[in-house]
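Structure ticket #2291
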Amino acid sequence: GVGLSRTATQSLALALTKLGYRTLHAEGFHPEMPLGRGNRLTEVITKAAVEYFKGANFTALAPALQLIEDLGIDAVVDLPWSACSHDLVLAYPDAKVIVTIRDSAEKWYRSYWEHFRWGAIFPPGLTHSFIAYWRDVTTKTGCGYVTRWPPWPPTDRELATCLAAYSSHVEELQRLVKPGNLLVFNVKDGWDPLCEFP
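Resolution: structure written out below.
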């Protein structure tokens, strides 16, 4: 699942789990799906993603992808996977891809802003490594101002860029993924689209 954060990715992850997939939500620390508990999964994924976001090529994700395979995980959802979906699709061209969406870019943005903006309250030098990771993620998404210091409101141009990033994310996947391998999914549509996705 490569929908951007705040597009009901948690709901998708829980649904895939109910359908029998061993599903990794984000970096593996989610309390209802703690695949990262008792192993190095969260640490390995976060470290690999940071390298990738800093400009390393797709091979930076190799340790994380190998560990995912070793743990028998067959579905990934949310961060950092949505932020590297272009490269994932190229590396796994036969994969089934689900991109979750909201009713509109504006509804997505409100949820995204509320979720990530607290990362902006930490000044440089007092930033926990995970906040730095969030800043990398929001920048890669096209909405870096959400977590920047100091936490000024966005300019009109920044807001427009962030909203456009939501739409272009879906459009790019529609161009890249093989016909029949992509499901654009709003959780309001219920179980049928997921169950019928071959």
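Closing remark: The longest strand covers residues 97-100.
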